[in-house]
Amino acid sequence: xxxxxxxxxxxxxxxIALIHFDFIDFSLLxxxxxxxxxxxxxxxxxxxxxxxxxxxxxxxxxxxxxxxxYLQSLNFTFIGQFFNxxxxxxxxxxxxxxxLAYRLHKDKLGAIMMSSLVDRLTGLVGLLVISLAVLxxxxxxFQFWIGVIVxxxxxxxxxxxxxxxxxxxxxxxxxxxxxxxxxxxLMRIFKTVVGALEKYWNRKMDLVAAVALSVFQYVLVLESxxxxxxxxxxxxxxxxxxxxSGVAGLFANAIPISPGGLGIGEAAFGQIAHLLExxxxxxxxxxxxxxxxxxxxxxAVFGVIPxxxxxxxxxxxxxxxxKLQQGGA
Length: 329
Hints:
The chain is mainly alpha-helical. The chain is built from 15 helices and no strands. The protein is globular.
């Protein structure tokens, strides 16, 4: 709990600092109200990403032989978002979503956990793919090191998957060197992970589809940033600048030192935007990312509807987590 409070303090502190140093300008946010149609379209782009995320999770669950209908996946995904936004630190959205899926497949706990993990990883890979695609658009002084980071990330993801599947004997030998109780726990986890990876390895097109959906999600997010910048009447940044700054902001947003990267994503987006603007200005570019974040949070409001529909199941899941926490206390 203390870490959650600390993260919230860091996030709020970052936003206050950005306002103090004129990286966030509320007059720009007010400008966006003069173009409600554009803002609504940007919101629609962000809302569609939830539907895409539900499809991606369904594909990843199906690859592990844990069948789930698309409507169920969509409802569980919205409920997970609702918990992430409105009950941060109490019950993780992934835990609630997975718990609801577990009630459908009591014998698929490992598969459900792995599908959530791989869901996160394919999202990261999708962002890396976009980063690689826009590498040529980045100023030359940054191209080399950013290229090294992106290529290294993709290579580690691929070869980590290959190593875990193809060299199981080495990992098993290392685990067997552990003390008895630790060995049994690690062996069970390892076999669950490798079993899931083998299934994904044999269904590579499902992974390709999941990454492709992630890329599409981020394209919609980047387009929403571009639309919101236009609604704010910000003219100093080209569409290429929005793409590059947006990718930087989304990467920074994944840094887990504040809730959802609050303040971190805004700072990164604003700094990179200033480097890429056509002529040097004092435009508070971080305002664009902040508005995009606000609209993203609003999409979670739709989670109220499936939450009410599945209220009994959600309550059962949260009670189970409470029991686990009390048992470990």
